[in-house]
Design brief:
The complex is a heterodimer of chains A (112) and B (111).
Chain A: E1 4-7, E2 10-13, E3 19-25, E4 31-37, E5 44-50, E6 53-56, E7 64-67, E8 73-78, E9 87-94, E10 102-103, E11 107-111
Chain B: E1 4-6, E2 10-14, E3 19-25, E4 32-38, E5 45-51, E6 56-58, E7 62-67, E8 72-77, E9 86-95, E10 98-101, E11 105-110
Parallel strand pairs in B: 2-11
Antiparallel strand pairs in B: 1-3, 3-8, 4-5, 4-9, 6-7, 7-8, 9-10, 9-11
The chains are: A mainly beta (112), B mainly beta (111).
């Protein structure tokens, strides 16, 4: 089945230690997104790629970076995680000119 | 983007009843809206969407109503089942491909 895959599902990192979350998709969608979702809150868009065109939300902290080496993969890098970065990180994809987004299961990040 | 909010944070209904989840949006220029269902520990799952040139759209057991005059969106679930228990989010497209999610309503279906 075509899907959005996120690894790992659970990630524990130390305060200030860089961490990378990964997302892959078999849907061959052009657009990929990263969201942050804190407990009992709505998903908040961090950035998205339209092919290799990177679109950063204005209020996304510089501590968050992303890479998309090819159509299938997208990475979220947190350079120096703080306690406030503990959250569920969701990856999503969509087709061109179709706004329905397909979400992966998320990676729950714990910062100790 | 401007906020998209929900009127009720929690909703409890009996199995078999109809559920109505409401959402207010503030950006009158929004032209696309979408409802997602999120079960605990999972990613959001698409339910139904609607474009601003429509007032109503129906799916399987779900109906979305859009009232552009008062900038209000609602999701109706017919014959609610225990499997419908989840958090429901509305979202609006505010630029390009970006979606702005509302706060969410937790739906609890009791037997």
């Amino acid at each position: 089945d075509a899907m959005v895959i996120q690894n790992p599902r659970y990630q524990v990192t130390q305060f200030g230690k860089p961490v990378t979350l990964s997302c892959s998709q078999t849907l061959n969608h052009n657009v990929m997104y990263w969201y942050q979702q804190k407990s009992s809150q709505a998903p908040k868009l961090l950035f998205h790629y339209y092919d290799k065109d990177f679109n950063n939300e204005a209020d996304t902290p510089d501590n968050f970076q992303s890479r998309r080496p090819n159509t299938s993969f997208c990475f979220l890098d947190i350079r120096s995680p703080g306690l406030g970065d503990a959250a569920m990180y969701l990856c999503a994809t969509s087709r061109v000119r179709v706004y329905e987004q397909y979400f992966g299961p998320g990676t729950r990040l714990t910062v100790t | 983007g401007e906020s998209v909010g929900l009127h009720l944070p929690t909703l409890s209904v009996q199995e078999g009843d109809n559920s109505i989840i409401n959402c207010a949006y503030s950006n009158s220029a929004s032209d696309y809206f979408i409802w997602y269902k999120q079960e605990s520990g999972k990613g959001p799952q698409f339910i139904i969407d609607i474009r601003s040139n429509m007032d109503k759209r129906q799916g399987q057991r779900v109906t979305v109503l859009l009232n552009k005059t008062v900038k209000h969106l609602s999701l109706q679930i017919a014959a609610t089942q225990p499997g419908d228990s989840a958090v429901y989010f509305c979202a609006e497209k505010y630029s390009g491909y970006a979606l702005n999610f509302g706060k969410g309503t937790s739906l609890l279906v009791t037997p």
